[in-house]
Amino acid sequence: MKNKIIVLGAALAFFISSKMNAQINFGEKAIGALQKGVASFTLSNEDAAALSKAAVEKMDAEHEVAGPKDPYTIRLNRLFGKHTKGEGYTLNYKVYKLKEVNAFATADGSVRVYSGLMDIMDDNELLAVIGHEVGHVANNDSRDAMRAAYQKEALIDGVSSQSATVASVTDSQLGKIGSALIDSKHSRKQETEADLFSYEFLKKNGYNVNAAESAFRILAKMSEGTEASFIDQMMSSHPDSKKRADDAKKRAEQDGVYKAYVQQKIVNGAPVKKTTIKKTAAKKKK
Fold first, then answer.
1. 133 counts as catalytic
2. pTM of the entire structure?
3. CA dihedral over 158, 162, 166, 172, signed as positive or negative
4. Cβ neighbours of 161 (radius 10 Å)
5. What are residue 114's DSSP bridge partners?
6. How far apart are CA 251 and CA 146, in angstroms?
7. Which long-range contacts link 89-97 to residues 24+ away (Cβ below 8 Å)?
8. Which of 58, 148, 248, 285 is 20 to 30 Å from 190 by CA-CA measure?
9. φ, ψ (nearest 5 deg) of residue 72
10. Is 53 left (phi over 0), alpha (psi -120 to 50) or beta?
11. How far is 190 from 71, CA to CA, in rounded Å?
């Protein structure tokens, strides 16, 4: 049975627009409720994913996305190219060429990583942070964030339809929804569960679990220093980095594998292959 959420709202005003972008089919039940002026209606998981996909496509078009041969893309694919499938979700990854330290994931499985984050974290730390974002997808937190964004940014503006089958979201509303997704705040419980998902992801795939503590220590330190402005968005939706670093340390200690993590060299691109030069002995003169 599809999970549904009841979205409360006042009487919905109808409007006609000659240019309706990003049309999303919300199903006959939802449309019927809109046309009858019912104060609430349901938004299915599939609808949330479809709307998330449309919002991310708009954000991709408005940001500088690293190309397939870009060093940032090469690095991200090297790390996560084999981690695209999960239970009930499929992931796709892209890099935004922005100095901000941030990453987010949406209900359709889109994961977007800012180059600023990749500049300050090594491979294992990056695996921990992005693993946390994937945890929000796996735990359906990203779906709930989409629903909240839709309720706040679209319904308040009075989304409606002149069609019996399609409800339309304007380009402007889609932009607001995208921004709301980036700034969405998860509950403390959701953050803790996503952290646990990240730790288990590292553990299951043979990565260094101690990098999770290190990643959160970096964010905690930045939030106290001059770089704080670069992680305002990251910290607004991911609070208490120091406590979460302590929790990651405790998990590693309980597993008997804790060891203070030393950050590795950060290489945004394909790792340089070491070449060996064979030395040939000089021939002895007769």
1. yes
2. 0.75
3. negative
4. 19
5. 96
6. 31
7. 89/137, 89/138, 91/134, 91/137, 94/60, 94/65, 94/66, 95/65, 95/66, 95/70, 96/63, 96/64, 96/65, 96/66, 97/63, 97/64, 97/65, 97/66, 97/70, 97/72
8. 58
9. -65, -40
10. alpha
11. 33
The amino acid that residue 221 corresponds to is K
The C-alpha atoms of residue 261 and residue 277 are separated, in whole angstroms, by: 33
Q: What's the pLDDT tens digit per position in 166-198?
A: 356 778 888 888 888 888 788 889 999 999 999
Q: Who's near 245: CB < 8 A, 6+ residues apart?
A: 212, 213, 214, 215, 216, 217, 220
- Name the residue type at position 181: L
Reference 163, options 24, 12, 1, 7; nearest CA is 24
Per the document, the length of the chain is: 286
Q: Which of 133, 153, 191, 193 is catalytic?
A: 133
Instruction: Evaluate whether 24 touches 169 at the Cβ level (below 8 Å).
Output: yes
Tell me how far apart the alpha carbons of residues 215 and 244 are, in angstroms, rounded to a whole number: 10
Q: In what order do the strands lie in the sheet with 110-114?
A: 92-96, 110-114, 103-105
127-167 confidence digits (pLDDT tens): 999 999 999 999 988 988 888 887 776 655 554 433 333 35
